[in-house]
Amino acid sequence: MNHIFKQGDQGKPVFLLLHGTGGDERDLLPLAEMLDPTYSVLSVKGEVSENGMARYFRRLAEGEYDVEDLEYRGKELYQFIEESAKEYEFNLEDVIPVGFSNGSNIAINIILREETPFKKALLFAPLYPVDLQNNNKDLSDFNVFLSVGERDPIVTKEQSERVIQIFKERNATVSETWVNSHELTQEAVLAAREIL
């Protein structure tokens, strides 16, 4: 997978950077710097092309996921993170997914896998319209920051509230910041730093 690894201070966490639709592995590097420049960074480019724009999984329409592809790509990405942990010598427990939009959505898929040991995530503009009836992952030792939009043209307020519920129902500690739209704001980044 196309990626960038940047070594930070020994023993510090590792940001897993996951860009939005049409982005690449360089997109969120400035965000990682703002959050904590001493952390290592593993930034991965999505391998699915939608009209020439990179994404992490296919969708059938706006807000309608190809769930089979999402499952397949989530598993593939998680295996890549496991391989990277060996190659770059970091612990999986120290990985903090930082996602925007499509990147947040694949991050949720990975976090909800039974085998994933992550403890924290920072997710901006997430959307997860997936049936989770059979998912009982316990997230009671998990901290998540969610930045969601009041007037997001892509994610309705109800859909944002559903993402918050997904984590609360699984006993995660949830911090949320409401911004205006489908965006990454400085206010949200400062709020996200609090949970680090």
Automatic annotation (TrEMBL):
<feature type="domain" description="Phospholipase/carboxylesterase/thioesterase">
    <location>
        <begin position="67"/>
        <end position="193"/>
    </location>
</feature>
<keyword id="KW-0378">Hydrolase</keyword>
<protein>
    <submittedName>
        <fullName>Alpha/beta hydrolase</fullName>
    </submittedName>
</protein>
<dbReference type="InterPro" id="IPR003140">
    <property type="entry name" value="PLipase/COase/thioEstase"/>
</dbReference>
<dbReference type="Pfam" id="PF02230">
    <property type="entry name" value="Abhydrolase_2"/>
</dbReference>
<dbReference type="InterPro" id="IPR029058">
    <property type="entry name" value="AB_hydrolase_fold"/>
</dbReference>
<dbReference type="GO" id="GO:0016787">
    <property type="term" value="F:hydrolase activity"/>
</dbReference>
